[in-house]
Amino acid sequence: MSERYEYVPHQLLRHRVRDIASGAEGELMAVINENVSDSLAREHWVQLAYIRAASGREFTTAVGNVESAYDQPETGRRR
Fold it and tell me: What's the pTM value of the predicted model, to 2 decimals?
């Protein structure tokens, strides 16, 4: 089995982004191509985005769920 992860360049690294699945926003810290397989016989690679929220806690989401927070109107915001 090869390495379990590798860093991937992304145009929004270090920019404010929104996770469209949850509506959460934060700074895109890294995009990683990660082998999430639990078997030596078959590798399963996924690209995960690591986003740091304002609280400092990081969360992950699929790279396809990441969009610039400045391109779209804010969603799920309450007064």
Answer: 0.81
